[in-house]
Amino acid sequence: MRAERGQGMKFRLNIEHKIMIPFLTIGILTILCFGTIMTWNGYVQKMERERAAAASSLRALELDAGLSGSGTLLLQKYRLIQNDSLYLFDADGVLLLGTQPPAPDDILLETGLPAFGWRACYALDRTAFWNSLIEEQKYMILATIALLIVIVQVSLFVSYNISEPLRQLSEACRVVAVGEQPVRRSPQVDEYAERSDEIGQLANAFQRMLADIASHTDEILRMKLLNETIVESLPLGIVACSPEKEIICINSKAVEMLDQTGYLCGGQTLRQIVDGIIVSPKVLHDPIRLQNADGRAVDYEIGVWRLRTADEGEGGTLCTLDEITYKKRMEEKLTEGEKLAYTGQLAAMLAHEIRNPLAGIRAGIQVISRRLESDRDRMLSTSILGEVDRVNRLIEDLLHLSRKRESQKVLINLPALFDELLLLYAKIAQNNRIRITAGVQGDPPLYADESEIRQVLVNLINNSIKSLHSGGEIALEARREGDSTVLTVSDTGDGMDEATLRGVHASLEEGRTGGGLGLSIVSRLLAQNNGSFSIDTAAGQGTRITIIFHTGGTS
Fold first, then answer.
1. Which of 99, 131, 317, 533 has the fewest CB atoms in 10 Å of its CB?
2. Each residue's pLDDT tens digit, 182-241
3. 536 close to 543: Cβ distance less than 8 angstroms
């Protein structure tokens, strides 16, 4: 069983944190402010030096431009100087000196050279600038880090030594208050239990209280485990909600049902339907049927109960989910059989009551038609005879409903048939602690009447279930052997001794339903589909029935 509850979380500082955090905060802020100020001063001073260097370089360039009569000579001179921070552009903005144009944010100063129509600028190399600044400030940075480490260590030392005595006392109370486990005695309180004063009396009373609490806690845990086991063992899905419609209890059966997303009813999954039922004031709900994309259907019956508290207040909602697919299938089959039986009886009665007067009407019209002289009257009588014959054919169709059903042989999809049988017997198997498995080896062909083969397997599975009194296993298998298709139904039940087995064979030969096993029906249906079966059994060792459809099951 799984319980879901939202719990608010609060962050609380213990006494050690209350001592350490202010002390540590003040120290760290002081050191950081000192380091920041020193770093900023270094940055400002270095930036001023860079600006002074930029102004000096541009003044020297202006002077050289005024003295030089050739721009080519000026470029050659400054290319030899290799000042990476100095850039020259001609009147069209083409870069004359430098590898690539600097970013606008990196330009510290710029000036014009009217003698040549050029523009000169001094740009800052950010990478080199910061590397140089860090190199100049490295000792100050290391000193700041060292001071931070010292502050942290001192804060930890001071807070630990002040809070340790208080922590020991708090731990004793926390273990009891949290209730992580039943505490029958507290070692911290034992130090005072031997005293004869009021503290000793208080300690002894506290220890007795702990013993009583532990005893009551054990009883509550035992009852809680029992209730959880009962709810988890139920074959129903259980969902309990609080008055706020939040799920507070749900067992694994309900989780398995609600997690199925491939089955829908009216475009909704089972979880969505249950969510709507929980918030609805309606209590009685009709069974629902969900289908997947392959057309397979699952039926559920949903029950809703309103819970009450001890003071008759609203305690929430309890919702039960019961899979009734097998029950619904059996009810539908029973209803279908009753309808067919009633339809057959009605068809036979109507056919008997209508055919005789209809034959008289036809004969009378034939006599009258011989005496008619008008072509129009003869055509009318012929038309009436045709309508009488059409009604007679309808009566013949009704008679087919009351006759024995003929086998309709098709190529059976064995995996789909096995899946349907597993679904039909899922609830019975679960309630009787029976494990039913099915397997198909390869793709064995089976050409037979699907409804009759289904009836054969249903009879055999029912026999196996009756023989499994204390749980067990039933296995369905299909395979191909040569030109034949082989089906087996085996169980781990009681089996049959030799005398019982001989009685079964004798009953089959005489056409009787020997031993209540219904094997005579199985034998007749298999004979209609070109199949036969054999029984391998022993007392206490289970039963294995092998069905063989000869020549691949074709007729």
1. 99
2. 566 666 666 656 767 665 666 677 677 777 877 888 888 888 888 888 888 888 888 888
3. yes
> 218 burial class (0-12, 13-18, 19+ CB within 10 angstroms)?
exposed
Distances (CA, A) of 229 to 2, 3, 320: 11, 13, 16
Residue 348: count of CB within 10 angstroms of its CB: 15
Calpha distance 184→273 (Å, rounded): 48
Residue for token digits 């089972």? 270
Helix (H) or strand (E) holding 250: strand 247-250
Tokens, residue 474: 């039933």
**CA-to-CA distance for 489 and 198, rounded, in angstroms?**
80
Q: How far apart are CA 511 and CA 521, in angstroms?
A: 9
Structure tokens at 254: 């309900």
Q: Do the Cβ atoms of 232 and 1 come closer than 8 Å?
A: yes
CA dihedral for 494, 499, 505, 508, sign (positive or negative): negative
Residues of the chain short of pLDDT 70, as ranges, are: 1-16, 69, 160-193, 195, 197-203, 206, 332-345, 347-348, 352, 383, 386, 390, 393-394, 396-407, 507-518, 551-555
For residue 268, which phi and psi values (nearest 5 degrees)? Answer: -120, 145
Give yes or no for a contact between 480 and 442, defined as CB atoms under 8 angstroms apart: yes
Nearest to 405 by CA among 497, 504, 323, 336: 336
**Which ranges of 68-101 would DSSP assign to H, the alpha helix?**
71-81
Under 8 Å between Cβ of 80 and 65: no
Comparing CA positions, the residue from 481, 484, 496, 480 lying closest to residue 544 is 496
Asked whether the beta carbons of 529 and 449 are under 8 A apart, the reply is: yes
Question: What is the pLDDT, as a whole number, of residue 553?
Answer: 39
* Six token digits for residue 22: 């202010």
Would you say 391 and 358 are in contact if contact means Cβ atoms under 8 Å apart?
yes
> Looking up tokens 């002074």, which residue turns up?
52
With vertex at residue 265, the alpha carbon angle to CA 260 and CA 267, rounded to the nearest 5 degrees, is: 95
Cβ-proximal residues to 48 (8 Å cutoff; 6+ apart), any chain = none
Instruction: With both helix axes pointing from N to C terminus, report the angle between 126-178 and 15-67 in degrees, rounded to the nearest 10.
Output: 170
Angle of helix 375-401 relative to helix 325-371, nearest 10 degrees, comes to 150
Say how far apart CA 39 and CA 50 lie, in whole Å: 16
Q: Which of helix, strand or coil describes residue 40? A: helix
Closest residue by Cα to residue 550 from 441, 413, 448, 443: 448
Helices (H), ranges, 179-194 = 187-193
Length of the chain as a residue count = 555
